[in-house]
Amino acid sequence: MTFPRLIAGLTMMLAVGASHAFDFKTVGAAPVILYDAPSTKGGKLFVVPRGAPLEVVLAYGEWLKVRDVNGELAWTEAKGLTAKRNVIIRTPNLKIRATPEDSAAPVFTADKGVLLEVTEAAAGGWLKVRHRDGLVGYVKNSEVWGI
User: What domain of life (predicted)?
Assistant: First the structure.
């Protein structure tokens, strides 16, 4: 392969990779087990609680290779995940705002690791979210993991 063809191929791969959106799923009604291989015969690595978001990296039949909030890669059965969108707060003492603006009044404060349900995407990189206690507000996409 010539050098120009190699560069063209790499450029194309990078362009395709950059245009691919992240695909997140949420653990369904029951916790899921993460395995080191796409089989129930594989080693069990972690149990992920219901509602937790997971990034889908690869699909292989009924199995998905996923990345968790800590960056760990593992396999899980696709049937345990849903299309519902939840996010996890990345920073301590995050203020969830009344409107999608930095200057908006805080509705509540949540700590790092708190799970929020995404109810809709708002303009300008904001998300409308709901806490399990029913409180609703807005966070920036960059303040959460799972979107």
Answer: Bacteria
Q: What is the pTM of this model?
A: 0.81
Q: What is the pLDDT of residues 59-83, one digit of tens each?
A: 999 999 999 999 999 999 999 999 9
SS3 116: strand
Same topology, domains 23-84 and 87-145? Answer is yes
CATH architecture, domain defined by 87-145: Roll (2.30)
CATH 3.40.50.1970 fits 23-84, yes or no: no
**99 Cβ partners below 8 Å, 6+ apart?**
138
Bridge partners (DSSP) listed for residue 130: 117, 136
Name the residue ranges covered by the structural domains of the chain: 23-84, 87-145
Query: Which strand (E) or helix (H) includes residue 95?
Result: strand 94-97
